[in-house]
Amino acid sequence: xxxxLVLIKPDAVxxxxxxxxxxxxxxxKLDIAHIKILIPDRNxxxxxxxxxxxxDFFPKLINFMSGGRVVAMxxxxxxxxxxxRKINGHTxxxxxxxxxxxxxxxxxLTYNAVHGSDSVESANKEISLWFDNI
Length: 134
Ligand code: IDP
Ligand code: MG
Hints:
Blueprint: E1 3-8, H1 10-14, H2 18-27, E2 31-38, H3 42-48, H4 58-65, E3 70-76, H5 80-88, H6 101-105, E4 114-116, H7 120-130
Antiparallel strand pairs: 1-3, 1-4, 2-3
């Protein structure tokens, strides 16, 4: 079964909408295979966001993501990678479709509430970064 890594980012945890966000995935019949809450260290985040290392927003992104608790989940289901990205919505909350998580809870391009892996390759890489031995 296809798997993806979902992160509920510190802005959404702080807003106390973790339950609402998890419901969005469960409504679409996706399964939670693993879940935990942690404050990620910078090394983990720099590996996770490796593809953006040279971007000007990278330092702000790492500061944001290491600044509070993050819920990390492995979701499972048919086509779960694309389903999660559709449920999450556009990276920019101002462009996110009605009723997507980023439309509901994102407040800026950086503070956009959730992460979902973008391919099978990144899902495998990200799951092994955030979870040991699964
Ligand atoms: P994605 O999360 O929709 O896959 P990516 O382009 O992979 O989007 O960017 C990773 C994360 O970096 C975004 O979710 C967002 O938090 C942040 N980000 C992306 N682009 C910008 C930007 O132009 N300015 C500030 N932050 C950004
Ligand atoms: Mg991405």
